[in-house]
Amino acid sequence: LFPASFGNNAAVSSSYDFTTEFELTVNAFGLNATPGQNVQSVVKTIEIVGYGQLTLPLPSGQSAPIDVLLVKHVEVAENNVFLGGQPAPQPLLDAFGVTQGQVDTLNASYKFYAENYDLPVLTILMNEDFTEVYEMYYDIDLLETLGLTDNAFSNNITLFPNPAQGKISIVQDNMQASINQVIIYDLSGKEVKSIEIQNVAVPQIDIDVNDLINGVYFVKVNSNGYAATKRLIISK
Questions:
Q1: Which of 41, 52, 150, 163 could form a disulfide with 235 if both were Cys (CB 3.0 to 4.6 A apart)?
Q2: Do residues 184 and 229 lie in contact, with contact meaning Cβ atoms separated by under 8 Å?
Q3: Peptide bond before 35: cis, by omega within 30 degrees of 0?
């Protein structure tokens, strides 16, 4: 999806058929092990409808902001029943309460995607006209991969003092990775400070936070595909 962005991406559709084979015996209709098929013709449409930053609740508190695209997913299926290679007669369909050519929405959802990840960060299941929310879910394991919870890289990153006043220090216990960027967000997800760092492995990075007001922040440490996010309190 990336570097796609909202406003310049038309909806993309694809289609496929899902066929269920069966045999039907109904004496009243003169059917004896007659081969049949239920053919489900599905049209899948995806469309990027928004972008921005997403924060999610975690067992340890709120996550740091995640850059995401909001993608609308719709799957609509037309169902048709065939007997002996021909459309099933309407009286038989009526007896089973089946409608030839019935159209059903199989999937109506909004999904939030982060860069370089095929799985959605958050999925919201909707009703077919997208006016009601049925269910919302997300995978904490994926958030760990994105660096929003403790992981191997995060466990080697220490931030002190915390609470802090005028300066914070970021210490890397394991020197296998080089920190190349530090971003600080406030609780609303707004980026308030960004520091680019020369791609050299150093044990400690000092950052001036005198310009930040008292409050709670997230400090995101990036290192060539790895990320760690630490909660920071400024108290002067």
A1: 163
A2: no
A3: no
